[in-house]
Design a protein that fits this description.
The complex is a heterodimer of chains A (570) and B (589).
Chain A lengths: L2 H15 L1 H15 L21 H7 L4 E5 L3 E6 L7 E4 L29 E2 H4 L15 H20 L8 E5 L5 H14 L4 E6 H9 L4 E6 L4 E7 L2 E8 L3 H19 L11 E2 L3 H11 L13 H11 L1 E5 L8 E5 L5 H8 L15 H11 L2 H8 L2 E4 L8 H16 L7 H19 L9 H27 L1 H11 L19 H10 L6 E4 H7 L8 H4 L25
Helix pairs in contact in A: 1-2, 5-6, 7-18, 8-9, 8-11, 12-14, 15-16
Chain B lengths: L6 E5 L32 H5 L16 E2 L5 E3 L4 E3 L4 E9 L6 E2 L1 H4 L11 E2 L7 E5 L9 E5 L19 H23 L24 H7 L4 H19 L19 H5 L1 H11 L30 H10 L4 H4 L3 H4 L15 E2 L3 E8 L5 E5 L8 E4 L8 E6 L24 E8 L6 E6 L11 E4 L3 E4 L5 H10 L4 H4 L17 E2 L3 E9 L18 E15 L12 H4 E16 L7
Antiparallel strand pairs in B: 1-2, 1-22, 3-4, 5-6, 5-11, 7-10, 8-9, 11-12, 12-13, 14-15, 15-20, 16-18, 16-21, 17-20, 19-20, 21-22
The chains are: A alpha+beta (570), B alpha+beta (589).
Family (chain B): Belongs to the dynactin subunit 4 family.
Main location (chain B): cytoplasm
InterPro entries (chain B): DCTN4 (IPR008603)
Chain lengths: 570, 589
């Protein structure tokens, strides 16, 4: 790493002294190989080819890449190698005003007192604040392009203070993003500025990298949905999602504040609409970000002292600006009221499990299901590396509560997806059966062979699973062998099998880390290629492209730069 | 809507050319799906119309409408240029507070912020001033104080020794004392019995946790910055370690230190043996190449949050001395460390630098704006603003003298009564030295649910050429003062707006009359209520101007030709939006 800049300097001085000769030579040497490795020198500053590229081009590319993390509500931007983004900007209505429209700056207008109380439906209430929805049916892509263009221009001019388009761009995007959306983002950026290339990095994997782990379960408590992504050796192996996320939480809090407001002014508009919110969105978000919290798991059996601690907290009153008269008065609200929406939304309190749809599982169940869908090896590794990212993870107490719930779920059910009364009964019967089996050693129950056969494997697997954790270390000779092999490198064994949280610096920091280590992403979209074909030009053939033979060369996909792939986004 | 009524906005023509998406060759400007509940679906024949009426109500129009001051004009493309159709290059960086220029090499390392003494208040963003604690003296201890909200760095326990180089002092302090401050605060916070939990931060319920417990204890609570650095060096080491073996063909030339290798390292051990078999066994390394491992200790950047870390935060959130204002707002937290939750965690922010940028036309790369290099100078070397090329439009209500027997028409543009016609004067002032022919077109009803009828009484007219200011003054000395009519207040009400006739005309300006009948609000019960600003009366007007200009560009034309051939006919067409006023709902009143 350190030698590269100096080597570069040498080369540059050399080229300047004998400019013509070197350029000639470069042209000769580059031509024959170009069918195989065209443009490979462009950004591989560390490889030996980089130094032979024209100084101007490589000089440009040496500039720090700029990393944008694109979310539904916020965009983070900064330079590679920094630990925090330089700025975080939203997509609110203030950002989409006309130029020269300074209403947002008129004092007090954001918490406008004068504007009449307007009821808006819960579904529409927050829609002005998000850039896109996963459901693209009523999303105007042109509008998104406009917003993206303006936000990028503003960020470059205000915060990054760099010329847009000169340096490489790295986009950190969720691994599931609608193709039309990705396409319009990319085409906006490519056609508006002259970015040489755009690299896409997945959010979840970058969060794992920023935590220092290679495998993890990344739980993104995001805006529109919560995703639990199992990462094994930096690859996404399983993803599950739930609509219980910050948007629903804000809506719930909005409903609560609306109720407060209407209670306060009982005489006027007794709008008893369940699905309407009258309070200001910013105010509500402010309340959530300041005061939302989450209790411990209510354990029925043991009441330990932290719950006693909270019982005093629950009686406390917190004064917040009154939702109906924002700037003038404060009202007192029970502190516990700010925990209730969180628990209701994220943990689905008060709803029985079988009433829930597949897409609205509570977060602990979501995590449990994701872990369940992983193969046991990966599961053991991932469950002790749970990473929480996203806005919801900032709510104090949420992460702990989720882990407690997951832990208890594992304790209760083990790793068996089968639930229900009948199963319980069968299990009971099987237990009796095994007891009787022990009595008369080889006696199969002739009355019910089918049921026993059906449930035996799961039962056995479960038992095995339970035993595994104790026995594995002792019995598994492969493990032992591995450990012996690892001993000389003094690697402590991996922690596995317990529920544990690992804190990540966030996806943006991960991308910054990875980019500053000169690691190139799998998905690197070239300007020219994209402008010719768009997303349709991406090669679908992942097998031949990514990993297998070209990996040896160390260069990205070796000779075949003519095709590019969308990788996980394909 | 934004500005006081009446106002004019210009829509940059670049909005009509959508972003070329290579995969879908063409997309209509508005996606056909966009039929939200507030807007009835336009009839299909209207969609097929070639020239679609500009709709100021569409959410996209917010991104293409600009006040005329914001627009530039490219002399080569003969087109209006908005911030979207120019490219910018930074000329210099400077601090807007102290007006010191920052050399480009320093900008990045300073985090794009002023490296001197310029700070903004973290609470209210007003500039902070260095003040001595004791009145009169200018001796240490010094603090940064906000003159607006009275916040000082004393609130977070920071004082400075010297009045210079505050940024360096501050960063030294925060780096060294962040841990101490945190620790002292939690220890000092005797009220909460849970606060001690946070100091047993790194308790890991595993067997190997005790191995390096001592080093862990001193290294606990790495702040994000230190963690990032630790992780970075950890990855560096891992990459170096795993690619060190010289026998490994992967290690030497395109080794793991080369870019693009990490993802391959990651998948290495899964398929390497198979691969090695494929690629000639003679090169196969004796043992498997070492695999990158994960970070295992705090020193390497791993952080296991303690189970009870949140308790103290929750305690503090509920405590009486914190309250609503003790929490930092979202806005305040935007540029702070991600852990900052309370106002006490906020640090003063160095002022963001600003840039002077030169602007080029995106399509022809000609420079449109080039500012003077020095930050103190406000002058420009090149500046092609649109105002000097396209006519300046101003709108004014025509207030007629009150007639006997009739109530005087209200001139309050913020509350226009529906169905009561108003007349407006639209004045176009030409800044070019060529006379211009202008034609205006407008849809007869505004594209809003509150559809107002609009008539331009004289849609086609000429505007005279601009000339030197002195000429006007000399002419005005003899002629009657045109300002009497421009003010819109005619003494006796003898002047009546007539169709097809220009209202008034001056040397380089012309005024025409617009007649507007504000529409009524939809009264049907089932219709959704009006959106914000839907009651604003905005008129889209299509402006087309033609003029003959001297052919400056074509220098190759032979000089011997007549004067007529030197003149080139130019044409410019664009949409403007006239904001007339806000219609009041008389049903609601």
């Amino acid at each position: 790493m350190a030698s590269t800049p100096s080597g570069h300097e040498n080369k540059r001085s050399f080229t300047s002294s004998s400019n013509l000769q070197s350029s000639l030579r470069y042209g000769q040497s580059a031509r024959p190989s170009s069918p195989h490795t065209p443009q490979q020198h462009i950004r591989s500053t560390c490889s030996s080819f980089a130094t032979s590229s024209p100084p101007g081009a490589s000089y440009r590319s040496e500039e720090d890449a700029i990393i944008f993390e694109l979310g539904t509500r916020w965009i983070r931007a900064g330079f590679e190698g920094n630990n925090t983004p330089i700025c975080v900007t939203g997509f609110g209505p203030e950002e989409s005003r006309r130029v020269g429209d300074y209403r947002g700056w008129i004092s007090g207008s954001s918490y406008a007192e004068t504007s009449p109380v307007k009821l808006s439906r819960v579904a529409d209430w927050a829609s002005a604040y998000e850039l896109w929805r996963m459901d693209l049916r009523d999303v105007d892509l042109g509008l998104i392009e406009d917003k993206i263009e303006r936000v990028f221009r503003d960020i470059y001019n205000k915060y990054l203070l760099a010329d847009a388009g000169t340096s490489r761009l790295v986009l950190v995007v969720p691994s599931v993003i609608p193709h039309p959306l990705l396409s319009s983002v990319l085409s906006t950026l490519f056609s508006r500025w002259r970015f040489p290339s755009i690299t896409l990095l997945p959010t979840a994997t970058m969060s794992a990298a920023a935590a220092g782990v290679r495998s993890a379960l990344v739980v993104d408590l995001g805006w529109a949905e919560t995703t639990a992504t199992g990462i094994y050796e930096y690859r996404e192996v399983a993803t599950r999602r739930s609509t219980r996320a910050m948007k629903t939480l804000l809506q719930e809090m909005g409903k609560f504040l609306t109720k407060l407001a209407s209670e306060e002014s009982q005489s006027t508009t007794s709008a008893n609409h369940e699905d309407e919110i009258s309070v200001n969105f910013e105010y509500c978000e402010e309340v959530v970000s300041r005061l939302a919290w989450c209790r411990h798991r209510q354990s029925t059996t043991e009441s330990n002292e932290p719950t006693d601690q909270y019982s005093s907290l629950l009686q406390k009153n917190v004064s917040i600006p009154s939702p109906s008269k924002l700037n003038s008065t404060y009202i007192d609200v029970h502190f516990s009221n700010f925990a209730e929406p969180v628990e209701k939304v994220l943990f689905g309190e008060g709803i029985r499990e079988h009433d829930l749809d597949d897409e609205e599982k509570p977060i602990p169940l979501l995590i449990y299901n994701t872990l369940l869908s992983l193969p046991p090896d990966a599961r053991g590794v991932c469950m002790s590396r749970i990473i929480f990212i996203g806005g919801g993870s900032k709510i104090p107490g949420v992460r702990r509560r989720i882990l407690q719930e997951v832990d208890s779920m594992i304790k209760e059910h083990g790793w068996s997806p089968v639930r229900g009364k009948v199963i319980e009964r069968q299990r009971q019967r099987l237990e009796n059966l095994t007891l009787s089996k022990q009595r008369n050693l080889s006696g199969e129950d002739p009355a019910n062979p089918l049921a026993s056969q059906a449930s035996q494997p799961t039962d056995q697997a479960e038992q095995k699973q339970e035993e595994e954790e104790q026995e594995q270390e002792a019995i598994d000779f492969v493990e032992q062998k591995l450990r012996r092999a690892n001993k000389d490198k003094s690697h402590p064994p991996q922690i596995r099998g317990i529920v544990r949280e690992v804190e990540s610096l966030g996806a943006w920091a991960g991308a910054s880390l990875v980019t500053s280590l000169k690691v190139r992403g799998m998905v690197e979209i070239d300007r020219e290629k994209f402008l010719q074909h768009g997303l349709a030009g991406a090669s679908r053939d992942l097998e031949s492209h990514g990993h297998i033979p070209d990996r040896r060369s160390g260069l990205r996909s070796g000779g075949d730069r003519s095709s590019w792939t969308l990788g996980g986004w394909g | 809507m934004s500005r006081p009524f009446p106002y004019t906005y210009i829509s940059c023509p670049c909005a009509d050319t959508p972003v070329p998406d290579p995969s879908r060759k063409q997309r209509p400007r508005e996606s056909p799906q966009k039929t939200s509940s507030e807007q009835p679906a336009p009839p299909p024949e209207e969609e097929e119309e070639e020239e679609k009426t500009f709709d100021p109500r569409s959410p996209r129009s917010n991104f293409s409408l600009y006040p005329i001051e914001q627009l530039l004009y490219c002399e080569d493309c003969h087109q209006i240029k908005c911030p979207r159709c120019i490219t910018e290059e930074i000329v210099s960086w400077y601090c807007p507070n102290c007006l010191f220029e920052t050399p480009s090499s320093m900008v990045r390392s300073e985090g794009n912020r002023c490296s001197r003494n310029c700070f903004n208040c973290p609470v209210c963003t007003a500039p902070l001033a260095v003040t001595a604690l004791e009145n009169g003296t200018e001796q240490a201890p010094l603090v940064l104080a906000c003159a607006y909200c009275m916040w000082t760095t004393l609130d977070i326990g920071i004082t400075f020794d010297k009045p210079t180089n505050i940024r360096a002092q501050l960063s030294k302090m925060t780096e060294s004392s962040s841990r101490q401050r945190k620790a002292s605060r939690t220890l000092g916070d005797l009220k909460s019995p849970l606060s001690t939990y946070s100091s047993i931060d790194e308790h890991i319920p595993t067997s190997e946790g005790n191995k390096d417990g001592s080093s862990r204890a001193e290294e606990q609570a790495l702040d994000p910055k230190a963690r990032f650095a630790a992780l970075k060096s950890f990855y560096r080491n891992q990459i170096a370690e795993t690619s060190s073996s010289p026998a490994d063909p992967l290690g030497t030339e395109f080794g793991f230190s080369s870019p693009g290798a990490l993802n391959r390292i990651m998948s290495l051990y899964t398929s390497s043996s198979r691969l090695a078999g494929l690629y000639g066994g003679n090169k196969k390394p004796k043992s498997k190449p070492p695999v990158m491992r994960e970070a295992l200790t705090t020193k390497e950047g791993l952080k296991i949050p303690s189970a009870n870390a949140d308790d103290s935060v929750i305690e503090r959130m509920a405590s009486d001395d914190c309250g609503w204002d003790g929490h930092a707002s979202i806005e305040q937290r935007a540029f702070q460390s991600p852990d900052a939750r309370f106002v006490e965690d906020l640090l003063p922010l160095p002022v963001l630098l600003r840039t002077k940028r030169s602007k080029r036309c995106k399509s022809c790369k000609h420079i449109l704006v080039k500012p003077e290099f020095k930050p103190q100078s406000t002058r420009f070397r090149i500046r092609l603003i649109a105002l000097s090329y396209i006519p300046l439009m101003t709108l004014r209500p025509l207030t007629q003298a009150p007639q006997p027997g009739l109530p005087s028409p209200s001139s309050n543009l913020d509350a226009l009564p529906p169905l009561r016609p108003i007349q407006l004067l639209l004045t176009l002032k030409n800044h070019m030295f060529d006379p211009v022919r202008v034609s205006l077109a407008t849809p007869s009803t505004t594209p809003s649910r509150v559809a107002s009828k609009v008539t331009i009484l004289c849609p086609e007219f000429d505007i005279g050429a601009n000339s030197d200011a002195w000429e006007e003054a000399l002419q005005n000395a003899s002629a009657t003062d045109p300002r009497s009519s421009r003010s819109g207040m005619l003494g006796p009400a003898e002047k009546v707006a007539e169709a097809g006739k220009v209202w008034d005309k001056g040397r380089n300006w012309t005024t025409v009359v617009l007649e507007v009948v504000p529409g009524t609000f939809p009264s049907a019960k089932d219709e959704p209520p009006l959106q914000a600003d839907e009651d604003v009366l905005e008129i889209p007007v299509f402006v087309r101007m033609e003029w003959d200009s001297e052919n400056q560009m074509d220098s190759s034309t032979p000089v011997g030709k007549g004067q007529g051939s030197d003149l080139v006919k130019r044409e410019l067409a664009y949409w403007i939006v006239l904001g007339v006023g806000r219609i009041v709902d008389d049903f609601r009143m």
